[in-house]
Structure formats: C-alpha cells, structure tokens
Task: inverse folding
C-alpha cells in the first residue's frame, strides 16, 4: 500500500482496485492522461519495486534496441512507466509472463489507451488488467472518501433539510476551472490556466506522434480548441469538418487520437432497440473541465455573464467526478445520456445490468419545478428498471422534487462531501 506520510502525496480512490489487481494478475496497467498522477501512484504504492521510465531517453533506446533482452534483465517485479513509447516491449512481456505467471510482476503505466492500440492490447490479452486513473476528483483533492456514487446507487441518499443560511458566492466556478490536474489546481488561478494551455500543446506536440502519424499537430490543436466550445454537446462530425475545412474521415481520425490520449470522451446515447423516438448521437465531453474552460477562455469571473457556456462545463465536471468514482467500485457502471425527438434530455444515465439511474445537472441555487422533466420521461421509458433520479444543484439541502420518492434534488457538493 502507498506510504501516505509524504505531505505532497494525495491518496487516490484507485488504490484499492490497484492492490486487488496486483494480487491476482501478472500485468497491471495504469492508464490515463499525462500528469494525472500515474507515476506518483505507482511509485508510492510499492516503494521497494524497481522503477524504469521510458521518458528517459537512455532507457527508451535500450528498450527499443533489444526488447527481449531488456525485459529479461529486469527484476522479478518491476514498474515500467509510459509503456506506449515502446510497444515492442509488450511481446517480450508476454513471453516472460507465459514463463512465469506470478501475480503483480509488471506494473505498467500508459498515457495512451492501450486497449485502442491493437498491437499492444493483443499482445497481453488475458494477462493484463487495465485500470483508468482519472484526473483528481474534488474528493481526492480535499482528502474525503468520495463515496457519493456508491451511497446513491446503494439507496443510501435520502432527504436532508439544512437550515437556511446567507447566500454565499458559489465555489463551483473555481472548482470547474481548476480541474483535476495538480499542475493546475496547485497553482493560483491565472497561473493554472496558463499551465493548462501549455499542457495541451505539449501533449499534442509530443505524445500524439507515439501513437499515430500526424502531419501537422496544429490541426489537432485547432480541433481541440474548437471542441472546447462544443463541450457536452451532441457530436456532429460533419459540422466540425465544415468549420475546420477537413474531411469527415480526418476529423474522425483526430477524435480517435484525442480519445486515446484521454483528452476527450464520447458519451453514448442511451437507447433500446424498440425506442425509435430516441436520439442516438453521442455527446462529446472533455475528460477534464479545467482543460475545457481554459481552451474556451473561461475563467471564474465569467460565471455570471456566460452561465449557459459554464452550464456545459459544469455538466462535464460532474461527469468527471462520477466517472472516477465508478472506477473505484467493483460494479461495472455504464454511462450514457438520454435525448428524445421532443428534445427532452437527461444529462447522464447510469446503468448496471438492467438497473437505470438518471442525473440532471443545474447551476442554479434552488431546484425548479420542471427540472425533473427528463428524469420522469426516462423513468417512463424504462419502467420498473428505473431506480432513482437526481437533480444536482448548487444548494445545501436534499429535497423531494416529485411525488415519486425516487426523484430528489441533491447538492452538487455531496459529490465530494459524502
């Protein structure tokens, strides 16, 4: 387990799943964007485990020149950082693991999604478990347990009326624009935004060439900036291609690259085969709200006059918290969104087996009477499979929103205070 006596180390919700994986799987890979803390977690978790990073040019050269020899000379248990930089190593790791399948032998980290890189994923099929390290959640940043999702899905979130208090300025703008990268949230606001923009450029200029042939990284950079103004919106590849002067095929290729680098994610539409009135287009989300707002030139000071744009950023921010918390649970939670031909929407739909939950997200300080409209439509669609629906808002009390006790208004801060 990690040594938490270092004041610089922030505990991660993924520590438990990582421990379990290392106890029964030969190869465990921590995947996630650069600077999310993969290397720190790997080093802190087992401090006596030898560590090699492929960001070191000498180590990389040795690994590329003789992959089998490199792996053969390593200790029995080892950490290899940034494995996507030397995909040739995976075949050598496979050979080593086939000869000795003891659990926890290789702890790998990767800043590109190995499961979307066939030559890496195929080599280690059946021998490797991948864990996804998201940017820091608000719970991780302030050292709380982050049990909201587990509690809510378990039916443990109920009415909680808090005393009235003087209205205070919202803390959400700061949290949204900080995002979950330490390079941002550990700096003052203006410095953090500068770091975010430089981070994006560094990833595009350096890492994208590890996983694909891209003639001009500036095209990808322009696309990412354009997408920051489309955050949490339905993905229309034709419109994007027209706006940027590229073909649909080129835009699709670039989107896949940005997904592989964990900068964006597509949120699929929830639908059933017999639901002809449902929109089946995915939504596009940035994996970090800070990167999205920085690229869109949004700061906390814009919270009031650009509330609609910030509403999209808030939606991505909440998805970011829930996605991370789902990764800490044993259950396989699937995420999607709901939209029908009447343009009735639910921002986030969660499913596990046949069970369905819905989340609506509002920036207001009090819930409105029409806020649960989408949740009620979703409940009608799924019938007895509907478990609960919540409207997250910027207030303090957990309130009833409908005669159906499964529909509640819940303060957004419960995402990190539970």
Result:
């Amino acid at each position: 387990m990690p040594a938490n006596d270092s004041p610089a180390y922030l505990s991660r919700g993924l520590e438990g799943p990582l421990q379990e994986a290392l106890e029964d799987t030969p190869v465990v890979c921590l995947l996630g964007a650069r600077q999310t803390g993969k290397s720190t977690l790997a080093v802190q978790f087992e401090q006596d485990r030898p560590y090699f990073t492929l960001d070191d040019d000498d180590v990389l050269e040795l690994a590329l020149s003789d992959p089998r020899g490199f792996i053969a000379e390593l200790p029995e248990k080892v950490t290899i950082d940034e494995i996507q930089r030397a995909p040739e190593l995976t075949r050598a790791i496979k050979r080593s693991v086939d000869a000795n399948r003891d659990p926890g032998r290789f702890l790998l980290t990767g800043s590109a999604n190995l499961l979307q890189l066939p030559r890496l994923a195929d080599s280690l099929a059946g021998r490797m478990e991948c864990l996804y390290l998201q940017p820091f959640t608000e719970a991780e940043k302030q050292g709380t347990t982050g049990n909201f999702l587990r509690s809510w899905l378990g039916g443990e979130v109920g009415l909680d009326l808090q005393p009235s208090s003087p209205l205070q300025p919202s803390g959400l703008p700061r949290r949204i624009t900080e995002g979950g990268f330490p390079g941002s949230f550990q700096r003052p606001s203006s410095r953090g935004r500068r770091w975010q923009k430089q981070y994006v450029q560094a990833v595009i200029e350096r890492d994208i060439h590890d996983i694909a042939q891209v003639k001009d990284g500036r095209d990808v950079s322009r696309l990412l900036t354009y997408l920051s103004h489309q955050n949490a919106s339905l993905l229309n590849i034709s419109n994007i291609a027209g706006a940027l002067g590229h073909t649909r095929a080129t835009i699709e290729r670039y989107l896949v690259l940005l997904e592989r680098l964990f900068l964006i994610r597509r949120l699929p539409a929830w639908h059933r085969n017999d639901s002809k009135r449902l929109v089946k287009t995915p939504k596009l989300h940035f994996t970090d709200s800070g990167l999205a707002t920085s690229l869109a030139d949004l700061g906390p000071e814009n919270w009031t006059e650009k509330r609609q744009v910030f509403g999209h950023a808030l939606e991505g921010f909440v998805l970011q918290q829930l996605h991370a918390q789902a990764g800490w649970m044993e259950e396989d939670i699937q995420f999607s969104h709901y939209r029908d031909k009447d343009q009735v929407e639910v921002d986030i739909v969660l499913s596990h087996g046949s069970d369905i939950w819905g989340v609506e997200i509002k920036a207001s300080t009090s819930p409105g009477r029409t806020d649960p409209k989408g949740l009620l439509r979703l409940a009608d669609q799924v019938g007895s499979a509907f478990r609960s629906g919540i409207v997250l808002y910027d207030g303090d009390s957990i309130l009833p929103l409908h005669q159906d006790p499964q529909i509640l208004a819940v303060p957004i801060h419960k995402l990190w205070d539970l």
